[in-house]
Every structure is written in C-alpha cells, then in structure tokens.
Amino acid sequence: MQSFLSIDDLESVSHETLRLMDTRQEIQQRLEQYCSRLEELKRGFDEKGILEGDTQAKATYEQLMTAIRHYQIQIQHDLPELSRRLIDARQSLVDNGESSTGIDLIKQVIEERREEQAQREYEAQMSKHQAERLAQERHETAEQLLDRIREQTSYYDASYLAMDVYHYREDLKGVDRLDEVVEFLYNRVQELSEKPITIQGTAIQKLKIMDAHARKLWSQSQPDPRPIIEKRSKPEASGEEKDEKEEKESYTHLRGKVVVFGGHTTTRTYVKEKLPKVYFVWSTVEDGLLIVDQAVQQIQTADVVLLLTDDTSHAVTRKAMTELRRLKKQPIELHHEGVNTIVEKIAWKLMFKSC
Q1: Which of 93, 94, 120, 164 has the most C-beta neighbours closer than 10 Å?
Q2: For the structural domain made of 244-354, what CATH number should be given?
Q3: pLDDT tens-place string over residues 271-321
Q4: What per-residue confidence (pLDDT) applies to 285?
C-alpha cells in the first residue's frame, strides 16, 4: 500500500519539492549560460589555431575544455545536489541575519562543485604513493592550522585565520578534517571576542561567513596603497623624456614570466595592474593544492619566482623550494611586505634580467 500523507504533510512536501524544482531550473539555466559563453570562446581558439610553441594559449584552451566538461557533467548529474546546496546557502544567510545583496550564491555553488571535480580528477591520476603523500601533507596542514589557531591571543589575528582555513578547505575536506578545524577556529574566535555571536549552518557555511568577515576586517586595517614612486617637482621635461620617465616609474614596459606563491586575490589584482605586460602564474591563499602543483610546474620557465612566506603554508613553501633547489633557482622571499614592495621587487628583478 502506498504511504499515506496527511493534508498538512502533503502540502509541506509539495512546497519543498516545488522549491527544489525552481532552484534546479535556476542552476541549470546558469550552467547552460556558462557553457554557451565558453563554447563561443572555444570557437575563437579553433578558428585562429594555436601555434605549436604557444604554451599560454594551450593552457588556456585546456582550461576552457575542462570547464565546459565540468559544467556539462553538473547539468547531467549534479543538479539535485547543487539545488540542495543552494537552498541551504540561502537559508544560512537568513538564519544568520546576512543580506544576499551582491552575493552570487548560484555562481558560488557551481564553482565550489568545479573545485571538487578538479580535485577528484587530479587525485584519480595520482599513484598510490603520491596519494598517500598528499594525504599526509593535508593532515600536516590541518595540524599546522590547529597550532596557529591555538597560539592566537588576539581576536583580530584569530579572525584573519579564517582566510587561511578557507584557502585549504578542499584539502581539509579530502582528509575529513574541515569540520574539526572550522569548529576549533570558531570556538577560538568566540573566546577572544568581546561580543560573541552565534553562526548557524554547516562547517562550510560557517567558514564562508567567517572568511567574509575576516576579509572585511583586513581591508579596514589596510592603508590605501601609495604610489610606487612619489613625484617631486622638477623642471618640466620634454614630451619624449616625460613619457619615458613615466613608463619607467610605472613599470608598464616590463615583460616576463613570474610565478608567485602566497598573497590574496586583492594583492594579485593590484600587482597585475602595475605590471600589465607581465605574465603571472599566481597561487594565492584562496587556491587549493591543485593550483599549487600547476604553479610549481611553471617554475622552470619563470623569469622570477616570488614566495610571500607570511601568506602561504609550510607545505606549499616546501613544494616550491624543492623544485627551486632542483633547478638551482633563487626565489625572492618576502615576509609582511606591502603591495608596493612586491611590485618593486618583481620590477627590479625583471629589469636586471633584461640588462
């Protein structure tokens, strides 16, 4: 006999099912838009053709193909799970009194799934030994994060660690340590806060809220970026001399390939604006170990390798230094330096290379 539902239960289940169907349609439409946009870009590459030695174009084309495949898989297999995640994310914002204005939750859910897809594919290609080594590194990362959280005596410093934990979220998930680390961080921040607040939701939902709060605190604590070189009043130069001087001061004429480990997306954006003709391979703290490995592979052909040691883990630094020693290359290492110093160090290295 078919299970019997009361009128109230039937209404409740029907409303929930209809909401899931609406959410599923939202996500499917967005995924189809993404596929359409990327297919158009792919046609551009196919029409122009990729030269044999153009490694940047090849890498970009491969990423395009991978992204299209991931989105198509999500349409075919992942819509029910993505719908539940989106509903949970929206409910989490409501429960915590957060506004969804300016937050593209659909994009977040889709891109988080892509990270998981990329991570699974990467791990599937590894040998048993490599997989064991990766698991060990992830456990080490979890222990390092727990130690750093335990050491904090300042509310602000503890809060900032949410950015690091968010950076390693996929690695922590891979060894089932995410819930443990997030809960430990949450409790430590609450202990150090003068006005503790309650955050509802799953570990990843709590982490997203703490990460957003940490970024807000961090941006409020940072002074506005100063010009790289302060201009002093000098006799007016000719037009040609003035153009040459401005080009040197802004470093817009410099070219080369730079691999960077560490820093945040805001740092990357600022540095790229100051060095627009430089090709960067940048593994920020927001990226996972997959991106780190891709950056390590680019060290051999890099003109400059930069390690921002205050904004990256020991595991990442160790990976980069192992490859650098193998290639007998010397990196630039910076600790707690501002964005202007980062720009200047890269610029001077590139200028020295071109001499």
Answers
A1: 164
A2: 3.40.50.11230
A3: 888 888 888 888 876 666 667 878 888 898 888 999 887 667 777 777 888
A4: 65
pLDDT score for 355: 46
pLDDT one-digit tens code per residue, 209-248: 888 888 788 777 655 444 444 444 445 555 555 544 444 4
Residue 22's alpha-carbon distances to 106, 248, 291, 298, in angstroms, are 13, 55, 34, 44
Amino acid at 164: D
Can you say how many angstroms the Cα of residue 6 is from the centroid of all Cα atoms in its chain? 48
Domain ranges, ordered by start, for the chain = 7-124, 126-221, 244-354
* Amino acid (1-letter code) at residue 246: E
Rounded-to-integer distance, Cα 286 and Cα 299, Å:
20
Query: What integer pLDDT is reported at residue 234 of this predicted model?
Result: 45
Residue 142, phi then psi, degrees to nearest 5: -60, -45
